[in-house]
Design a protein that fits this description.
Length: 401
Amino acid sequence: MMRNKVKLILFFFLLVNVIAFSQSKMVVTYYPDSNQIREQYEVLVSKNNTELRQGFYTIFYENGQVWQKGKFSRGKLDSIWIDNYKSGQRKQILSYSKGLLEGLTITFYESGDTNQIIPYKHDIIDGTLKIFYESGSLMEKTVYKHDKPNGVSISYFENGVVQAKRELRNGLENGESISFFDNGFIKEKSTKQFGMYQGYLEAYYKDCTNGCISKSCYYNNNLLSGDFTGYYPNGNVMIECNYVANQIEGEYISYYMKDDSLVFKTKQIKEEGQYLHNQKTGIWKSYNYSGQLYTKGNYRHDKFDGLWLVYYSDGTVKQKGYYLDGLATGEWEIYYPNSKLKNKGNYLADNKEGLWETYYDTGELMTTINFVHGIRQGLSKGFDKEGKCVEEVVYKNGEKL
């Protein structure tokens, strides 16, 4: 008896609902100041003139092309809906059930080629979403759960070669990640947590069939942290240093690329020094390819500061001078390979200033030239080896008078 009563109540409710919207009519709207139809659809009308969309619906562009068309069921989107470009070419096919996206939504390029295939369940993306290049080849496929990427995602170059393989959790990369160059060779191997680099990373050169490493390093919360090593394509070490929170700290060494035909890879130092908070600091040295000291000097806040020396390959001084805040300042001297003085003078803020003297490699004075802000100014003289003045030239703003 109780079940029959419930059935009667439900039947009465449905009957009242149908009666309430018992009349239907067609509605047509137009663009302003135009005979062009904008919308055309059916509605159910109640006794108090409340309208509820029911049946087919079409909206047009101002040029007359169909913009969207589909069907309503008691005011909710239902069944297949078509969305078009202004040109009339199909843009989307959407499947609805009681106002919710259900099944596959397919989007298209204006050329007509498929752009995306999106699986929906109860208005939420669920399943494998696919994206295509306009040429038709697959660009990416990603597993979705609960409207977010959750699972494996694989992307492709247009030539079909895999570009990347990633593990995703709630839309963020989580787990092992590997990427490739368009020639199929490996580009990078890493691990990510919550979308950030975490742990060990290896990167590779593109045109190396054996997978030659270009760098190896460590990350902590997406910041470089720990040992960093850079490599030449032949496998020789290029750089060794340490990172702390994305900044170079401590010892830094760079190396020359030695002959890759050698059985034992050698490390010939090119430059060495210290970093503090990602800036060069203290004494730095560089060496020539044969291992002899080439330059030696001090850095302060990543700029030349104090005395700097340049050497010939036999160890004798070639040049010495001073810097202040990265600019040549103070007395400078340049020497011949026989250690005889060649030039001497002063710099001010990276410009020659005052009298500069040049000497013969036998020690005699050759020229005297005056500079103001790096420009020749005033009387310049030239001498022979006996000390006799053989030339005099007056300059004004760098030009001979």
